[in-house]
Amino acid sequence: MKIITVNNYEDFYSDFPVSQDILPPLTEKDFNLSGLDSKIKNRLFQLLISHKSAFARSTVELSAAATEHHRINLQHDYPIKCPIYKIPFNLRNEFRRQIADLEKAGIISKSNSQYNTPALFVKQKENWRFVLDFRKLNEITLTQDFVILTLEDILREISGSNYFSALDMKSAFNQIPLHFADRHKTAFSTPDGDKYEFNRLCFGLKTRLKHFSPLHKRFWKIYCTMELWFI
Fold it and tell me: Where do the Reverse transcriptase domain residues begin and end (predicted)?
């Protein structure tokens, strides 16, 4: 049996035809394997490559989880209509690019909903993040109570442990399907006059943690005797 290693990975996959629509395969450059001896490095690399579908380098690589769909239960069904926020002209190309990536990934799709939530850009350290201002929709969304661990609880639980692993999920909410009957409630408009709605759970909805946290906890219990999560 041919073993995949850091050194022969590209040769191994050159035997297979690659569609132009498929993103480049993962390589050693996608992982930080520094500080490991060659034996451990190759074993870890094989493990990572054998589960390559678990890694997403960009928004367009995100897929929807096979789990129950998120619901948005409202106090009434009168559409919330908010005026759009102005996006600075120097940021509009970046805005269009992020919208295109979300649509290509299937996270959003064109909409004719009567709802409208304003979209805006939030400055991060090195880039701009597309977000929606769901405050008006959240005001009429039914609250779902849930319990989440505090940082103090987590530190108490992990005291005495010898090994620690930390995983940061990329756009975690965007991997949870949104129920078909509720997607129109997330509609937003762009400065170009287009209208979209989310097909998956999105950041800013007040009930997102109530739905996501139990899913996260239930998933990790399959693989771990003890898991802790903090959002």
Answer: 123-206
Token pair listed for 180: 């078909």
Spell out the per-residue pLDDT of the chain, length 231, in tens: 444 344 444 444 443 333 334 456 667 777 777 777 888 888 888 887 787 777 766 666 666 565 677 788 899 989 999 999 999 999 999 999 999 988 988 889 999 999 999 999 988 888 898 999 999 999 998 887 666 677 787 788 778 877 676 666 665 666 788 889 999 999 999 999 999 999 988 888 887 666 566 666 666 665 555 555 555
For residue 32, report the phi and psi dihedrals to the nearest 5 degrees.
-95, 95
Q: Is there a contact between 70 and 211 (Cβ–Cβ < 8 Å)?
A: yes
Are 207 and 70 in contact by the 8 Å Cβ rule? The answer is yes
Q: How far does Cα 49 stand from its chain's mean position?
A: 21
